[in-house]
Design a protein that fits this description.
The protein has helices at about 5-25, 30-40, 45-70, 85-100, 100-105. By secondary structure, the chain is mainly alpha-helical. It has two domains: about 5-75, no CATH class; about 80-108, no CATH class.
């Protein structure tokens, strides 16, 4: 069923519900019971869910294909250049002295 047909079906049920609300201040159980066959006849939710499942199946297959052709290997990640730890320590110490953390810089 096409999207327009589903939308027309949903709109029809909503129109019936709106007219029911306009007629009565409080909707009786009988009125809702009379509306129920219209909703079940339209089956908009089932149709939408069916289309959603089909779409999701394609998306899921696409994800699996991407994983197959582009495998993830965390060992091959480029984390940037390796830093010289001695140089990094000097930079941290200079920063601590510059900011006035003298005790911390001496302990570092």
């Amino acid at each position: 069923m096409s999207r327009n047909a589903i939308m027309d079906s949903v709109d029809g049920v909503l129109d019936k519900l709106e007219s029911l609300i306009a007629e009565e201040e409080e909707i009786s159980e009988d009125a809702l019971t009379n509306l129920y066959p219209s909703v079940m006849e339209a089956e908009p939710l089932r149709k939408i869910l069916g289309q959603h499942k089909d779409t999701y199946a394609y998306i899921s297959r696409l994800g699996k294909d991407v994983e197959k052709f582009f495998p993830y290997d965390p060992n091959k990640l480029n984390l940037g250049p390796e830093l010289d730890s001695e140089l990094l320590n000097k930079i941290v110490i200079q920063y601590l002295f510059r900011e006035g953390f003298f005790k911390e810089a001496e302990m570092y």
